Amino acid sequence: MTPPSPIVEYAFELNAATVSTPPRSVGSASAPSQGGRKRWRLRESPERGRLFHSGLPKLIATVLENRGIGTAVEAQKFLGGRETHLGDPRHMPGFGNALRMLHDAIAAGRTICIYGDFDVDGITSTAILTETLRDLGADVLPYIPHREREGYGLNVRAIDSLADRGVGVLVTCDCGTTSVVEVERARSLGMEVIVVDHHLPPSDLPDTAALINPKLPAGRYAFIDYATAGLAFRLAEALYESAMRPFPEARYAELAALGTVADMVPLLGENREVVRRGLEAIAVTTRPGLLALIGVAGLKPKDVTSESIAFSLAPRINAAGRLADARLALEMLLTDEEGTALSLAANIDALNKERQRMTLEAQEMARAMVEARPDVPIIVTGHEDFNQGIIGLVASRLVETFGRPAMVYQKGAVESRGSCRSIFEYDITNGLRSCGHLFERFGGHHQAAGFTILNERLGALEEAMVEHASEQLAGVDLTPTLDVDAEWPLGDLRSQEIKWLNKLQPFGQGNPEVSLLSRNVLVTDAKPVGQEGRHLRLRLKSGNVTWPAICFNYEGACPQPGSRVDVVYSLSADRYGPGEGGGALQLTVQDIALRG
Question: Which ranges constitute the DSSP H helices of 284-412?
Answer without folding.
Answer: 288-296, 306-308, 314-323, 327-334, 338-371, 391-402
